[in-house]
Structures are given as C-alpha cells and as structure tokens.
Design a protein that fits this description.
about 325 residues, alpha+beta, 2 domains, globular
Length: about 325
C-alpha cells in the first residue's frame, strides 16, 4: 500500500493500454444506443476489462420505472456485482486532496470510481472537453503523479489523461481546493476468498438475480404514467430550445431506450447459454421498445423544431410491448 507521500512511482490495478483496449460488444458500433449512462457504461467496461462477462449482471435493467419527472437512472446494484464478480464497492470519505486518495487506493489494488470534471477529460472532445463543466464518473486503474499520467475507464472505453489535463483535473500546483466540494468517491475491494462463477455456475447465479429483479418490476405499466406526464410536458416543451430537448430526452427517452437495449442484450446472452430456453421472444420485445424510443426521440426533436403536434401513439405501443415482455418473463421465470 502507498503511504500518503509516496507519489513518485506508478501504481496500477491492471495493465491496460488505451491504444489497444477493445470495448465490450455492448459498446459496439452496431448498437442502437452507443452509450447508456456514465455509471452503467463504466461498470460494464470495468467488469469486461478485468476479464469477466458483464452481460450476466444486466437482469436489473428489467426493473426500471417512470419516476415522475424522469425514468430510473439505472445502475448495476452493488450487491449483484458482489455476488457475480466479488466486487465490494465502498464509498470513501474525501478528506485529503483527491489525487492522494486515488494513489493510495490504486496502490492497494483497488479500482477507483470518482467524479471528475469532463472539462479536463480529452475523451469527451466535441461534447464537454474544454467546452462545459460537467461532472462524470471515471474508473481509475493506473496513475503516475510524477509523470502526470492516468489510465481510466470512462463511458464506453479506456483512456489516458496526461500533462496539463492531469494537473487541472486534480487541481495541483496550488489550486484552491477549499473552493470546491469534494467529489463522490468509491473504490472496489475484492470479496475475500471468492472465485467468480464461470460457465454454468455463472448462468445459475445470473438466473437467481433475474428472479429477484422480476419481483421488483413495477406493478403498474410505467408507460401509462409516462404518457400522461409527457402529454402535460408537451405544452412547455414546444416552446423550449435544443438544450432543453437534450436534457429532457436524456432522462426519459434515452434513459429507458438504452436500458431496455441492455435488457435485450441480457436476454440474448441467456438464450445463448446451454439449458436456458424461452427468452427469445422477450428479447425481441425489448429490442422493439429500444428501437421505438430512438425513433420517437427524433420525432420529438422535429416536432419541437417545427412547432407541430406530436402523435403519442408510439408511447402507447411501447407500453403494450413492455406488458407483453414482462408477461413472457413472469410466465417463464417467476
């Protein structure tokens, strides 16, 4: 373990190279939604980068709901990651400069999940890098303070941060730390004496989680409530600008569209496993919801731009698909 003052050497959890790292197929070019949300994407790549199959952990996506002003910001439950991969994710209290905590935990072999400012993250070029101050969670695997370099998971890939960006993101060289609220900081310990399940054992463990999350599925169809709220929101949405469209779409259409594409991915993974049958139709249903959400997002953008009425029938159709998919899964597994 590193002492607080030992920052003269490179420490890393795993040897990963940003130039050769290959993303999981969940983040492949053929996806309807190339990214989901910052935390889910990070965990998917962290699991993959450490040699495990993240698809096995996606049963939780089936239980999302409409929360009133947004859909559930879906995140892999820590308990599921603990059961499948031995990841023991704990929060860390930030009482020293953030870089000191990162060095200490990475030096102890713990991946670090910490909120940083995307203004300084070059992988966000074209969206946030040097354009907007947006907090985003990264997964630090490799850090060298002396050479000002960091290897980290972010979104759908693995990247390197160097030079001035490293200095600025950690507010080094006398930056006024006291003016900034400390970020949310987690680290990944390892479940003691645990061997992650493989093969049939992994499928069995995943099916156990599936049954748990099917019990969490909303009792009432969330698309019914969403349609009512969306209809009420349309009056002011039609007067809003493109920035409001992106914010609204992110917490609604994109959130459940990307989530249900992960549901499809999960069910396709199950269908490919020996001994698991009867999930192909449900997978196709959730694919339909995901695709329809993408198309409806474009319809909303055009409607707002032209100030013309929007047909809400696609939301009703997605609700019927959701009910069909849940009925199929409940009949098969509940």
């Amino acid at each position: 373990m590193c002492s607080p003052s030992d920052k003269s050497r490179r420490v890393q959890v795993a040897s990963l190279d940003p130039t050769t790292y290959r993303r999981h197929p969940i983040h492949g070019e053929n996806r309807t939604w190339s990214e989901t949300n910052c935390y889910a994407d990070l965990i998917i790549e962290l699991v993959h980068g450490l040699g495990h199959e993240p698809a096995a952990a996606l049963a939780f996506t089936l239980a999302i709901d409409f929360e009133g002003d947004q859909w559930t910001f879906f995140k892999p439950p820590h308990a599921d990651l603990y059961d499948l991969y031995g990841f023991d994710i704990q929060e860390l209290a930030v009482w020293r400069p953030v870089v000191d905590h990162v060095v200490e935990q990475v030096g102890a072999g713990h991946p670090v999940l910490v909120e940083l400012d995307s203004w300084y993250l070059p992988d966000t070029s074209g969206s946030s890098y040097r354009l907007a101050h947006v907090k985003s969670t990264v997964g630090v695997m490799d850090i060298d303070v002396e050479k000002r370099r960091m290897g980290y998971f972010h979104g759908a890939g693995y990247y390197a941060l160097e030079g001035d960006d490293f200095r600025d993101v950690f507010m080094l060289d006398g930056a006024p730390h006291e003016r900034f609220l400390p970020p949310y900081f987690e680290y990944v310990k390892w479940r003691r004496n645990f061997r992650p399940p493989k093969g049939t054992a992994l499928v069995d463990a995943s099916l156990h989680l599936l049954k748990k999350h099917l019990a969490r599925v909303p009792r009432d169809n969330p698309f019914t409530l969403f349609r009512e709220r969306f209809s009420a929101d349309l009056e002011w949405l039609m007067k809003a600008d493109i920035a409001v469209f992106h914010a609204y779409s992110f917490v609604t259409l994109r959130q459940y569209g990307a989530c249900f594409e992960l549901s499809e991915t999960y069910l396709r993974w199950l269908a490919a496993q020996q001994g698991v049958e009867g999930v192909d139709e449900a997978a196709e249903v959730f694919k339909g919801i995901s695709d329809a959400a993408k198309a409806f997002q474009f319809q909303l953008a055009r409607s707002m731009a032209r100030k013309k009425p929007l047909d809400l029938a696609p939301i009703e159709a997605m609700g019927a698909q959701w009910q069909r998919g849940m009925d199929l899964l409940q009949a098969r597994f509940a």
